[in-house]
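FAQ: What does a multi-protein file look like?

Like this. Sequence, then tokens, then the next protein.
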Amino acid sequence: MDNTAIIILAGGNSSRLGRAKQLLPYKGTTLVRNIVDAALVAALVPTIVVTGASSEEVSKELDGMKVELVYNQNWKQGMGSGIVTGMNRLLAMVPLVENVIIAVCDQPFVTSDILINLHSLKNKSKKTIVSSAYADTVGTPVLFNKIHFRALLGLKGNTGAKNLIEEQKEDMISLPFERGSLDIDTEADYLKLIND
């Protein structure tokens, strides 16, 4: 896709699950490879994966894939720190990038079509934020135009992109993605996914 990158957050320690959710088996692959595959099929360049907890294992899992791995040494501080780490790497690599999609690795139903549709809706609507809409809320994956990059770089600790979406509602349009409501936080979530 023209001048659109993706930052995939894969650095959490899966405290509620008790094991690395990034590496959970899913449809013959793993959750982290699943989202990376979707990003690569959608031709998002660069595809940046932010690691943290389980960094070595996640890096090994993605060995040979066309991704840029970056380690977030502040991963214990939460999602905001991962976004900042990814943004710093992105802007060092591609200073003139126009858009970035922020995604997480524990939404198993994100597909390349969802990512492509975020971009298409941005172009059609001329809005500068396109978020996914599910379960009466909005969230990831979410596309931000470059006018929001400074705000993304200013995120702190566990404050993710959602606050930014809320603050900039007049600049935002949402893409219906009901299956986005499933993210894998607990063993029950995972069992629901694999047994559905």
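And here is the next protein:
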Amino acid sequence: MIRITHAVATLLMLGACATATAAGKGDPKSGATKSKPCASCHGVDGNETLDPQYPRLAGQYPDYLLRAMQEYRNGRRENAIMAGFVKDLTDQDLADLAAFYASQKGALEDLSHLK
């Protein structure tokens, strides 16, 4: 039982490292160009959602964004709209989009009004 647990933990850690590495190779400038279709729901910079059901993407961790898009693409996350948008995107496209949204300042990052 201990060996199986250790093996599973090792595989999970390797998978997380691979995802983080792929996200680190994204190009925010290229992602900005590729994000045009995303703007109708998530806003131009990932902050200005028109409907509260659409999440704000700006300022999120790139590895989180990448993994979420990969999961929509492979069916682990179920959302017909997102699955349709990401189904034909390459890993590089997803990494670029993740890098772009991660590079944007999130709406909640400026907490100066709380001082």
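Q: Is there any per-entry metadata?
A: Some entries carry free-text notes. For the entry above: Helices lie at 2-24, 28-34, 39-42, 62-74, 80-86, 91-103.
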